[in-house]
Amino acid sequence: MALTTSSSQRATPLADFAQDVARRRAAVGDIVMPRNAGTQRTESKFALLTAIKDAGGFW
User: Fold this and answer.
1) Would you give the distance in Å from CA 11 to the centre of its chain?
2) Global pTM?
3) Consecutive sets of 10 residues in the chain, 59 residues long: mean pLDDT of each?
4) Are 59 and 52 in contact (CB under 8 A)?
5) Is the four-CA dihedral 32, 52, 54, 37 of positive or negative sign?
6) How far is 23 from 16, CA to CA, in rounded Å?
7) DSSP helix, strand, coil percent of the chain (3-state; round to 5)
């Protein structure tokens, strides 16, 4: 089944969207999200993150 787009939806200008996001963030305040502990990472993901760290990056 193909998805259909409602004809009542309007595109939101990026500037309006940015103002709305800023207003919502100001209303909620500073949210501190805990970082993922990484206990389920694959060897390839661990190697990638190690390479980023060795290159001076902070993921």
Assistant:
1) 21
2) 0.42
3) 64 95 93 85 93 90
4) yes
5) positive
6) 11
7) 45, 0, 55
